Design the sequence.
């Protein structure tokens, strides 16, 4: 049985299959993942592990899926080739599943209205982020943006929904020297494409390595309206992570020293 510092589950690795045992399942994680893998195997084969067997009644519940080769991109200096492969994988995911199929999928566990509510709740707590001038400037800029109508406009989706991972962690992107595949679908569901891309661009896992978010988004097929929504979601996610990086914040123990200051710069850049 193995796990790593990015995991919320335990993995049993076989030669050809992986057994994933869930450490929590209150959001229906096993059922969400099984449904997503089944749908992907039918409509976008090769993009994710193939489902083999579900064990929903065991404690903990588990699913068995095919084992894919490669290494995760979290912690890497992501190259141009890898960025293009990430974009290709995201374009396949977002374009190759028929709209009527996506419409029948359960909404993702993590979604825009919840994200807006959570970030505003963190801001209302006025977390202790210290006295650094740059950090304080980011706090004020973020508060002004949260008080505007921009976050509320993100809670409704005028665009065609997609199947989404609902988790921007770069550990969910598996590189095998030729292509990128997507893993860990336990929070997946029907989602807003701009929300998904904004979270990939701004997930705090980016501080573990280097991913040129601007380059990634340039390689993804985006309409002008989608690009504008992605920008606003990037602001939301960057600010949310920033607010959770105080001394008592939940994101602090997992990130290196100096992350708060780097995130303050990120917030100010995105809000400028």
Sequence:
């Amino acid at each position: 049985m193995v796990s790593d510092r990015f995991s919320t589950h335990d993995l049993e690795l076989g030669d050809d299959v992986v057994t994933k045992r869930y450490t929590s399942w209150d959001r229906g994680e096993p059922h969400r993942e099984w449904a997503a893998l089944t749908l992907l195997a039918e409509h976008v084969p090769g993009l994710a592990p193939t489902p083999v067997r579900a064990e929903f009644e065991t404690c903990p519940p588990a699913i068995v899926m095919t084992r894919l080769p490669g290494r995760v991109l979290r912690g890497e200096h992501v190259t141009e080739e890898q960025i293009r492969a990430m974009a290709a994988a995201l374009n396949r995911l977002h374009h190759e599943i028929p709209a009527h199929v996506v419409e029948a999928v359960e909404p993702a566990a993590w979604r825009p209205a919840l994200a807006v509510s959570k970030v505003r709740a963190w801001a209302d707590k006025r977390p202790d982020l210290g006295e650094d001038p740059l950090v304080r400037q980011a706090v004020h800029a973020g508060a002004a943006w949260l008080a505007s109508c921009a976050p509320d406009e993100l809670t409704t989706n005028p665009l065609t929904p997609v199947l989404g991972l609902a988790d921007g962690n770069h550990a969910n992107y598996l590189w095998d020297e030729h292509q990128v595949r997507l893993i860990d679908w336990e929070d997946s569901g029907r989602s807003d494409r701009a929300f998904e891309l904004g979270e990939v661009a701004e997930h705090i896992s980016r501080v573990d390595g280097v991913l040129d978010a601007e380059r990634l988004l340039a390689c993804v097929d985006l309409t002008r309206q989608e690009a504008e929504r992605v920008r606003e979601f990037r602001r939301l996610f960057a600010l949310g992570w920033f607010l959770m990086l105080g001394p008592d914040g939940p994101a602090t123990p997992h990130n290196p020293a100096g992350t708060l200051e780097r995130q303050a710069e990120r917030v100010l850049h995105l809000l400028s």
Observations:
- The domain at 70-271 is CATH 3.90.1200.10 (Aminoglycoside 3'-phosphotransferase; Chain: A, domain 2).
- Residues 224-243 form the longest helix (20 residues).
- The chain has ten helices and nine strands.
